[in-house]
Amino acid sequence: MKIIYLLVLLALFTPFVVGCSNSNSNSERLIAIREIAWSSVPNQDREQLHPVWKNAEVKRINFDEMINEYSIPKGGAEPKKIENLYKVTFDKNHVIFVDGKTNKVVGTIFNENSLG
Question: Which domain of life is it from (predicted)?
């Protein structure tokens, strides 16, 4: 009887344990993406962004959104579709796109008028 009771409890609580570990893994992934984006910020912009960079919004986006809304990449080349794409927004003048599969920056938006 005790064994059945323990098995029922184990079955009930297993999804919660797995869910928590997935959440931590996802959070760590977003932190890594943010750090990749931060490493690509030009030195002249780092001082301005230093107080806020660890709070930059990291959001997984659709590839077509990057192409249509932000016109990246530029230059007329046919872009390679990216399935695992993240947008990191430090502020309205500094947005960086990271390929989550290769961990490489695939696009940037820097407003040069943002510097004081």
Answer: Bacteria
Give the residue from 48, 52, 116, 115 showing the smallest Cα distance to 88: 52
Question: For residues 110, 112, 114 and 116, what is the CA-based torsion angle, rounded to 10 degrees?
Answer: 140
Q: Answer yes or no: are the C-beta atoms of 30 and 58 closer than 8 Å.
A: yes
50-74 confidence digits (pLDDT tens): 888 999 999 999 888 777 776 665 5
Give the chain as a 3 state SS string. CHHHHHHHHHHHHHHHHHHHHHHHHHHHHHHHHHHHHHHCCCHHHHHHHCCCHHHCEEEEECHHHHHHHHCCCCCCCCCCCCCCEEEEEEECCEEEEEECCCCEEEEEEECHHHCC
pTM: 0.70
Measured CA to CA, the distance from residue 89 to residue 76 in angstroms comes to 25
